[in-house]
Structures are given as structure tokens and as C-alpha cells.
């Protein structure tokens, strides 16, 4: 496990490997309460970093699959203008 703190410079694969090592050490036991808490906190940071990498990958995939997402309803034009007044009936 790396002694450096998690950062954006840490790639997904390395962060995941470090997280696996943290979990293994916590599950094995044999650490003091203070060491366990430090490992837990590091694991939380690594898990957040991994999730950030995965979220970014998902956004990139979504953009590649649908490069022109549905337009904003506010930009749809006069047919969907919420301020447009309906035409009055001739009867009333």
C-alpha cells in the first residue's frame, strides 16, 4: 500500500488496489484502534476517489454514446413556451 494520501494524481487502478489493501488489513485485524481508524479514513478517501473516477468515466461514455443530449426544455421554442397564452375560444 502506498503511503501517499489519495489525490487526483492517483489513478483508478492504483486507488482501487490501495483500497483493497486497506480492507484486507481491516478485516485481518491485529491493529490498534488508532491504526484502524486511520485505515478506515484512508479507505473512505480512496473509495471517494474511485467513485469520482467511475463517475467521470460514466460521463465520458454517456457523452460518446449521445453527443447531442436532449435539448433543454426552455430552449424548445414557442410550442412549449410556458408563458404562451392559449388562444381564446370564439364561444367564450
Describe the structure.
The model has no long low-confidence stretch (mean pLDDT 80). The chain is elongated. It is built from two helices and no strands. It is mainly α and 92 residues long. Helices cover 54% and strands 0% of the residues. Helix 1 packs antiparallel against helix 2. The protein has helices at residues 12-28, 33-65. The N and C termini lie far apart (78 Å).
Helix content: 40-55%
Main beta sheet, described? none
> Which series of helices and strands comes N to C?
HH
Task: Give the C-alpha Rg.
Answer: 25 Å
Q: Strands, helices and their partners?
A:
Blueprint: H1 12-28, H2 33-65
Helix pairs in contact: 1-2
Give a summary of the structure in a few sentences:
This protein is mainly α and 92 residues long. The protein has 2 helices and no strands.
Main attributes of the structure:
92 residues; mainly alpha; 2 helices
